[in-house]
Amino acid sequence: MKERFRWLAAAIAAHKDRTVVGRTRLQKEIKLLQRLGFPTEYTYTIFFYGPYSEGLNADVRLLESLGLVTERKRRTRNDDTDYYIYQASPEAVIPEISQYEKPISVMEQADAVVLELAATYDAFRAMGSHHQDALNRLRRKKGTKCDDGNVAKALDLLRRLSLPTT
């Protein structure tokens, strides 16, 4: 079995142009992939943007030192906030990632806020909350991010990933 950092590099490499835009996106995608059996076993806690793994963050640093992934910081034009872009090298690709390409593609196409809501709802469910309780906790934690039909879109994303929503 491959080491978890190799799986992480392969997940990044499975994206269009071997690129993931955003630390939050990477965290949420790997969390949801783990729920689908992705063999990384990162430990997550609920943080500002939902599930967060310090271990995943540490493995990104390792991937950088091994030359499998580069991380670039960018600044938005609108509000001068920073975001990060991960680029995997061709050497990051492993054949075993093929079984996760479809869910990666589904998540890659999802809006970042919708992905964040989906991962947070799913984390509440995984902690034992029933559907309505998870929705209530999600709305309390995420506030206006839940507006504009984003919760329905998040639940639809989870259904497309074959993860429980009711």
Keywords, please?
single chain, 166 residues, alpha+beta, Arc Repressor Mutant, subunit A, 2 domains, three-stranded antiparallel sheet, two-stranded antiparallel sheet, 7 helices, globular
Q: Which secondary structure elements does this structure contain, and how are they paired or packed?
A:
Blueprint (H helix, E strand, L loop, with lengths): L3 H10 L5 E3 L1 H13 L9 E3 L2 E3 L1 H13 L2 E7 L6 E7 L12 H8 L3 H15 L4 H12 L7 H11 L6
Antiparallel strand pairs: 1-5, 2-3, 4-5
Task: Walk me through the structure.
By secondary structure, the protein is α+β, with helices and mostly antiparallel strands. The protein is globular. The chain folds into two domains: 1-98, Arc Repressor Mutant, subunit A (Orthogonal Bundle), CATH 1.10.10; 110-161, no CATH class. The strands form two sheets. A three-stranded antiparallel beta sheet has the order 1-5-4. It has a two-stranded antiparallel sheet with strand order 2-3. Helix content is 49%, strand content 14%. It has helices at 4-13, 23-35, 54-66, 101-108, 112-126, 131-142, 150-160; strands spanning 19-21, 45-47, 50-52, 69-75, 82-88. The chain contains seven helices and five strands, in the order αβαββαββαααα. The N and C termini lie far apart (34 Å). Helix 1 packs across helix 3 (54-66), helix 2 (23-35) crosses helix 5 and helix 5 packs across helix 7.
